[in-house]
Amino acid sequence: MTATLPSLDQDLRTETAGAKATALARLAAAGLPVPAGVVVPVDHPDDLLPGAVAEILTRCPAPHGLIARSSAVAEDGHSASFAGLFTSRITPAAPSALLDALRAVRASAHHPTVATYGRARGITAHPAMAVLVQAALRPVCSGVLAAEVAEGRCTRWRIEAVRGLAEPLVSGTQTGEIHTGGRGQEAGTRPAVQETIQLPGTPDELDMPPGEWVDLVPDSGTRAKIRTSEAGVLHLHTPAQLAGHPVLAAGARGRLLTTAALAATVLGLDRIDVEWVIDHRAELHLIQARPLTAPLTGRTTGAPTTVDDNLVLHGIAAAPGVVIGPATRADNGTADISGRVLLCRELGPEAVPALLTGPAAVVATTGGELSHTAIITRELGIPCVTNVTNALTAIAPATIVEVDGNTGTVRPTTAVPAQRAAQDALPLAMTAVLTRTLENPLPADGRAATVLWLDPDGPTPDLTPFAAAGPHPVAVLLPGDLPVPATAPPGIRPIRLHGLGTLLWPRGTPPPPAEIAVLGPDGQVLHRRTMTDTAALLGDAQALIVDWDGTVADNTVARHRALQAALAPYGIPVPADRYRALAGLPVRDVIVQLAADLTLPIPPVEEVVAHSRTALLAGPAPLPIACTVDLLRAANALGIPVAVASSAATVLVHDGIQRLGLQALLPVVVTLDDVPCGKPAPDAYLEAARRLGADPARCLAVDDAADGITAALAAGMRTLTIHHGRLVPATAAGVPGGPRAAQP
After folding, report:
1. Which residues contact 593 (CB under 8 A, 6 or more apart)?
2. Closest C-alpha to 133, from 69, 43, 224
3. Between 544 and 372, residue with greater pLDDT
4. Superfamily classification of domain 313-412
5. How far is CA 674 from CA 30, 82, 688, 704, 719, in A?
6. Domain 139-291, what fold?
7. pTM of this prediction?
8. pLDDT of residue 96
9. 631: three-class secondary structure by DSSP
């Protein structure tokens, strides 16, 4: 049979093969261990699927069946993973079963949950789904690795591993063995008890009744008893002789870390999320590699918490943040969980719409930091603790609990928690301080605002001080869905804060700060929490001016690849860390600087630029960056004019705006072609303000790179940058606490 379907040993494109298959093909081309696979492209007609099935069965020997995996164009992005939202299915290597699997995977692109999540992450394009089909591997162990990578090494990492298939781990139904470490740190391991092992079965094994025995590993003498089998998968009792033995040995862990760092280098990533398999021959296979959309919590395995009272429930820190709210259970319905702490087992894709309504936090009885539940909550900024095994029995509904996603603890509380060890001592200039009582006079400690917490069970406070003049604004926080009290004075603006409640903010004052904090008796910061309302970020801005590359468009990796290819004939490498350091500069300046770094002759700059530009225009459309697109929409709704100020070429910016369908939101575009000097000079921002008829001092700018931030500040504009997928105030030093603006 003539091969008509593309495969992983070819040069694939995201718009036809999807993000997952394209990334794996790039890794395979670099010599990394990727199992062979065949792709059913996005545009493959439905009526030709039976022919595709016949071709796949001919090309893919599969003693343990096949796996049909989603490879959507939009998944595995820098800001949106779609983790667990699309279907993947293990299937027998039979025509009717494989055809059903292909149709199920393709249909999952049109599920309402996918559309809801996509809109929340700023992705509105019509779903496009390719399907990657591979022979199902029979793993001894498998799992997920998440790592930060620099200079070709994993500098901070976490691995979760289980025996057999990793599906129970990623779905959160099981908690795996956990390994953590980093540069200069000794690796830590947290063992796990695994009662059931899942493996793809042979046709004969799948016909066996429960209670029969199968070989767990060929020729090892280790056998396991069948509990049940379904959908091509054996569910086995874990053999007693494996108790006390590690799932992932130290040597295999080292190979995995080395391979993951190589994968990150190939894909141009500084944070990577890898799914992996080790088979009975001790061979490592990479079955998925994508950007890590949100950073790890930083919690070290086995490290003690600072909480020592006997009411504390301990679990795994899965998504950072500390919040207080009333508990509710997922089995009571998830339609109205805004401002509440959601108690659940594992959360499947059907729970994503509820998560988008703004729960205060999530506490799950199973799962780890790399489960789909944890990934989605980190992307949405919802504090999460997993593996709190007794959460559903120990916490009654409506109990007020404190969830600490930084340390992995949950405890009942009736008030703002007593002081624990201070988490940090950063200044309060961009922080609102939450309190239960208003001091008179107000503290003059440099805070941006004081926020009075309205106790839902207490008397309605006298809100007269709310309107009083003082060294800073005074606001009120109504937790959950409490109505605005009748005693609230005029001149307030209700602002809905996901996961917190409603903020009553005084009009005529600066917009709310980016953070809210709780102070201890000595003034130290005990807890910080992001407090972002998209419309509130605009404040009294007369105009909004945004950068394009890395700010509206998630195209940093594509630009890096295009420049690498254009400079390769001249022997000039483009290391990922160096490219990030030069982000924001005009591409011609970047080319000159890269040559100067190595004291090499400057290549013909215009030829390099033309080659890079052609590759970008022919490549796939970028993905939108959700937090910035949300701000654009809020500005449009409020009638605030918007412009782009970019150091990129006009043709690239207009092409990207058209591909993302943002023409109505971005009618004014200023690029390097329109001004004498690119960033860090302020020319582009000043010209954009002039075209909008706005005073630069009344403009709000958004830029992701250090040179862009410098340009916006030099133009006299209030400036935001992107930090871990959120918009935060920027300073001349970049994001708070960092030497430069973080990349999305």
Report:
1. 582, 585
2. 69
3. 544
4. Phosphohistidine domain (3.50.30.10)
5. 40, 38, 10, 21, 22
6. D-amino Acid Aminotransferase; Chain A, domain 1 (3.30.470)
7. 0.60
8. 94
9. helix
